[in-house]
Amino acid sequence: MEVVILPTAEDCGRVVADVIAAAVTAGPDGNRPTLGLATGSSPVLAYRELIRRHREEGLSFAGVRGFLLDEYVGLPAGHPESYRSVIRRELTATLDIADSDVHGPDGAHPDPLVAAREYELRLLENGPVAVQVLGIGANGHIGFNEPGSSLTSVTRVKTLTEQTRRDNARFFERPEDVPRHVITQGLGTIGRAQHLLLTASGARKAAAVAAAVEGPLTASCPASVLQWHPHATVVIDEAAAARLERADYYRYTLQHKLPHQPY
């Protein structure tokens, strides 16, 4: 795992955007990559930087396919807080990526268990994901894989913890409006991506980041599954790095990277 510690959240957003842009431009137009897209506050600054590069520098996403990490169960199609709506509002509507090329679990399906299996099959058919963007919850979750999730789990229906529902209540009119269930890619599903790219900022995420990066590999901290992956990058600001014991080592290795060494 490579840990990149930067001064500010804005710096993190630029580095995450660098990684995504490199993946998008790596191949010919006829072989554009599949990206794994996360919602939530963590990747927003990176998405804004990608939009800026598209508008001002001509970075094209034509032909790129996007797959969402998760979706609430029970929200009607088009609900403003469904993650398909959120990713469109925060990123894809401003890029040259077709709506038909952005996929997510069907949270409005009459049988969420069937919807989860169908989404897992779609990911298998369209993979591998070149870069999977990830945030991290204060309890160490990635996607909606709450503590206790199997490290080899696949896409499935999960019940949200009350902490996660409280964290997400700010997006809804009333706390009781936050759905109790989601369809989420599993930790095993996420791990099939070629490059896992986790970003976090702020002191509130420091304990979870430390557990994921330096703690044991354990289902009690789902994000620790990144330790298992052959190509995982964690991009964090100084506040999120505050509880890392080896922070100085990570800063040293970043300073002495080879000029063209990828993240």
From TrEMBL:
<feature type="domain" description="Glucosamine/galactosamine-6-phosphate isomerase">
    <location>
        <begin position="15"/>
        <end position="227"/>
    </location>
</feature>
<dbReference type="InterPro" id="IPR006148">
    <property type="entry name" value="Glc/Gal-6P_isomerase"/>
</dbReference>
<dbReference type="InterPro" id="IPR037171">
    <property type="entry name" value="NagB/RpiA_transferase-like"/>
</dbReference>
<dbReference type="GO" id="GO:0004342">
    <property type="term" value="F:glucosamine-6-phosphate deaminase activity"/>
</dbReference>
<dbReference type="InterPro" id="IPR018321">
    <property type="entry name" value="Glucosamine6P_isomerase_CS"/>
</dbReference>
<keyword id="KW-0119">Carbohydrate metabolism</keyword>
<keyword id="KW-0378">Hydrolase</keyword>
<dbReference type="InterPro" id="IPR004547">
    <property type="entry name" value="Glucosamine6P_isomerase"/>
</dbReference>
<dbReference type="Pfam" id="PF01182">
    <property type="entry name" value="Glucosamine_iso"/>
</dbReference>
<protein>
    <recommendedName>
        <fullName>Glucosamine-6-phosphate deaminase</fullName>
        <ecNumber>3.5.99.6</ecNumber>
    </recommendedName>
</protein>
